[in-house]
């Protein structure tokens, strides 16, 4: 039990956990089902271009309520193929408060990501800022459903319609989430899911573009498979961005566990909210109760002025207790290379959020008892935030040792 700062492992107390607790432990589902699928692929000697990927695509399209799903080796590549298939050129407006993949996928194609600020109330792209950023070089806008909270879809779609822009969504966090009661996946021209190991549904590595635009889907399938057409003939330049059968076997198995995992995540999220309620300077980002969410991220905001300690120090406190929190997303994209050098921009709301965000462990590997103990550490550190800050500073930066007295006979 952490009663005072002397109990914190950072200052020599015993660590709360003997094994590390992580953000983003994979949800692997029923292992027997996974091996059954994998064995089928091995027995059939069909390791790629097979039926498991097609089945996974069908299940994802169904889950998202869209006609087409094009599975890929990861979501970064899916974004890249989508930017190409959508014909983006010149400038693409997007939030900076996202994983750098959203921007890099554009930059790697020679596009210019134009970062705009967030709405501080949601953490998502401010639609007025996006509208104001449109120039004659703009070809598209990419909204990001940050931590599964929907981007301002209706407003961005209006901006797109007004200026003839492509409207795309990075839905890497948002499988199973809704916007105004409708499932994420069918908005804009297309949306992209991630099935990275850390996501609510994982396929080891994996991603997918989902869309109701059949022509766009066909173009994406071609780009994903060396530029080949439905008859296998090469009709354009393309790449190999396919998902393997082993990845699809995991994706299908993980998808089967989705409802159970989301329920667990929701309970963890509610517990974090109640356990940290009233802690000065610490707040857990809420989800709109009127919408569905997968609750895969528990995001705390640490306001140094209120808590008396900075987010990074709290992260160190937690790390010493074997709780490995993550800064999703800090620094924000515009604070990273090459963007900060190439196109410096000030985004005050984004910068403030980036200074405060801390993703806390959740998911199937984190129990309610774990959450209570993590919150106990946070409460203990925040209750004496200034003392923790002072002591950490002294420990990191010890006063210079007094000079060793030199026997007078040796003095020069
Ligand atoms: N758009 C957005 C908004 C995204 O957030 C992402 C990716 C993308 C696009 C691109 O999606 P992908 O191309 O990756 O499909 C991670 C992930 O690599 C990345 O997928 C994710 N977002 C981003 C938010 O986080 P890191 O560097 O924090 O991940 P990593 O591998 O260090 O793992 C984080 C924690 O998860 C670790 O502390 C331990 C745990 N973990 C991780 C892996 C891989 C496990 O327990 N087991 C595992 O197998 O970037």
Automatic annotation (TrEMBL):
Show the InterPro entries listed in the entry.
DegT/StrS_aminotransferase, PyrdxlP-dep_Trfase, PyrdxlP-dep_Trfase_major, PyrdxlP-dep_Trfase_small
Which EC number(s) does UniProt give?
Answer: 2.6.1.33
Top EC category: transferase
Gene3D superfamilies found in the cross-reference section: Aspartate Aminotransferase, domain 1, Type I PLP-dependent aspartate aminotransferase-like (Major domain)
- Region named Disordered: 388-412
* One Pfam family named in its UniProt record: DegT_DnrJ_EryC1
List UniProt keywords, sorted A-Z: Aminotransferase, Pyridoxal phosphate, Transferase
* Keyword Nucleotide-binding included in the entry's annotation: no
Read off the SUPFAM superfamilies from this record. Answer: PLP-dependent transferases
List N6-(pyridoxal phosphate)lysine occurrences by residue.
Answer: 199
Q: Which GO terms describe its biological process?
A: polysaccharide biosynthetic process
- The record's active-site residues are 199 (proton acceptor)
Q: Name one GO molecular function term.
A: pyridoxal phosphate binding
Q: Sorted alphabetically, which PANTHER family does this protein's record hold?
A: PROTEIN RV3402C, TRANSAMINASE
Hey, which family's this protein in? Belongs to the DegT/DnrJ/EryC1 family.
Q: What is this protein called?
A: Aminotransferase class I/II-fold pyridoxal phosphate-dependent enzyme
Q: What is the scientific name of the source organism?
A: Actinomadura livida
